[in-house]
Amino acid sequence: MPPAKKRPRAYDVTRTRTAVLAQFAHVRDAVRGLTAEQLAQPGLGEWTVRELAAHLTMALERVSRAMELPAPGGPRPEVSLLEWPFSTAGGSAAVAGHTRELAEGRPDLDALYEETADRFTALVPADAGDRLVTARSGTMRLGDFLVTRTVELVVHTDDLHRATGLDIPYDRQALAACTRLLADALADRAPGGSVEVRVPPFAVVQCIGGPKHTRGTPPNVVETDPLTWIRLATGRLRWAEALEAAQVSASGERADLAPLLPLMG
Questions:
Q1: Which has the closest alpha carbon to 146: 169, 167, 174, 122?
Q2: CA-to-CA distance for 183 and 206, rounded, in angstroms?
Q3: Partners of 196 in the β-ladder
Q4: Rounded to the nearest 5°, which phi and psi values hold at 132?
Q5: Which among 184, 57, 41, 194 is positioned nearest to 112, based on CA atoms?
């Protein structure tokens, strides 16, 4: 029989919403201090730093626009929280085009950030986690969609840090939610109990079929820090590179996550 999947982790919608706004505020503070020269530098892929900064506002704006529309029909969401990371690969061309248009059309980034935060605060309630909204990948619960926003914000905050060298703070709740979702997605993709993946202080999951560990020190253990895990899960860092740089430790013959990574396209 295949391994039984655990009940999905629960997230408090009020705390998640607060974390999204807090992380967005950290990014806004960083972007406010960027010079024109810094904004013109390479940001992420073919994007400049300006385009990356503009793209970050879309993490919140997608929720605000979804809340302006009537709730979609149907009793159940089309996409669960654990399915979301694997549904993000498509549509990159449309996202890139929208990002460039936004960056060109809104040269005053601080005004754009202020407007985005104000709209999100006004349109997105903290007590309607079960309301369905339309995301790019399909309908989702609002509470789940907000958790995905922590991933977008934390991942791109790290992108902005690596592009500019700025030391941008991470809201603890946002970093925790992002780390946990991506760890749980790994366990969902490869259910089992033969490998324990530890991302202290936020997540411990068991994955990959094989002999199940029950007590004592597991025979197969992977351990890393949250940002390294997030970079691995999103393809910013390769498994072999992380091992070589001692950014991740892997003990046991089954402790090889390379075939499972990245989780997001």
A1: 174
A2: 9
A3: 206, 221
A4: -85, 140
A5: 57
**Kindly report the CA angle at 139 between 81 and 66, in degrees rounded to 5?**
110
- Cβ atoms of residues 49 and 40 within 8 Å: yes
164 and 41 in contact (C-beta within 8 Å)? yes
Say if CB 53 and CB 24 are below 8 A apart: no
Collapsed DSSP state (helix, strand, coil) of residue 20:
helix
Q: Output Rg (C-alpha) for the chain, integer angstroms.
A: 19
pLDDT digits (tens, 9 = 90+) for 45-87: 999 999 999 999 999 999 999 999 999 988 899 999 999 999 9
Burial code of 138-166, b = ≥16 C-beta within 10 A, e = fewer?
Answer: ebbbbbbbbbbbbbbbbbbbbbbbebbeb
**Residue 190, both tokens:** 């490869």
Look-up of token digits 């990948």: 137
Tens digits of residue pLDDT in 226-256: 999 999 999 999 999 999 999 999 999 999 9
Say which residue the tokens 């960056």 belong to.
103
Closest CA to 27 of 48, 55, 47, 46: 55
CB of 203 closer than 8 Å to CB of 179: yes
